[in-house]
């Protein structure tokens, strides 16, 4: 069971803005910008991600407490568990949202799973390093923001990779 926490308006506003900004930058790079996509991804970031990501981080804190002088195994475990949370199924769900709000609902199929899997594996080293930093160096009340900013940067990275490869 996840530890409960009261409504955090600040996280919802930040999720709304940060996820919208990251996805908009990626959409502009790919010439796929639409107002519906901007609004949809802002709502996903501000309502869904801003609720579930902090809840997972609280759950992770309860299972693997962070300590300033914690062991390297504990620190690595926190990063690995965070990386596993943003797994291929999470990525595929994000692609579904992009398809729904980006006007490409026809692209939503089980074919997204291998794409999400490849995306997860290709980005695992960078994601592990970023999650290590977020889980072990960022203050608890700032982890969601740091994670959302990293997600926004990754969205731009995915857009550039698609354009260049």
From TrEMBL:
* Superkingdom assignment: Bacteria
Q: Does the keyword Transmembrane helix apply?
A: yes
Where are the bilayer-spanning segments? 12-30, 36-57, 83-105, 111-132, 144-164
**UniProt entry keywords in alphabetical sequence:** Membrane, Transmembrane, Transmembrane helix
| Name used for this protein in its record | Uncharacterized protein
> Which species is this record about?
Hymenobacter glacialis
